Amino acid sequence: MKYNRGLLINFLSVEHDKKTVSGIGEAKLLVSDVQGDVNLYATVNGSTLSGTMRRLLCVPGLIINLYSIGTVIDASVEVLFSNNTVSFSRDGTVIMERKRSQKEALYHLDI
Questions:
Q1: Across 31-35, 85-89, 104-108, which has the greatest mean pLDDT?
Q2: Distance between CA atoms of 73 and 89, rounded to whole angstroms?
Q3: Cβ atoms 30, 60 nearer than 8 A
């Protein structure tokens, strides 16, 4: 996530050689010095859902928050990309859905 330690709960310092992010932006190696949990809220079909994202890396130099699809799948959430829309479901119930930005070709999640 962008470097905003104020959003983290249960945060702890990490060793620089163990938590790195590569292949983003200018193809330089970004190093995280802290990780923690973030409480989040998403609106789906008019209902507000809450949850906690765990073990997020807080990365200086990152200008946008990134969401790991692999981590989501590991948490038993199904992710479906179809017709420029991404849907996240658990136990057959959609918990989040967003359209792809035509300008940036990114999916901006409302969390």
A1: 85-89
A2: 10
A3: yes
Q: Report residue 71: phi and psi, to 5°.
A: -65, -40
Tokens of 64: 């946008």
Residue type, 51: G
Structure token pair of residue 4: 């905003």
Strands (E), the chain: 9-13, 20-24, 28-31, 34-44, 47-58, 78-82, 85-90, 93-99
- For the chain, which residues make up each domain, given as ranges? 1-63, 67-111
Residue count (the chain): 111
Please state the pTM of the whole predicted model.
Answer: 0.62
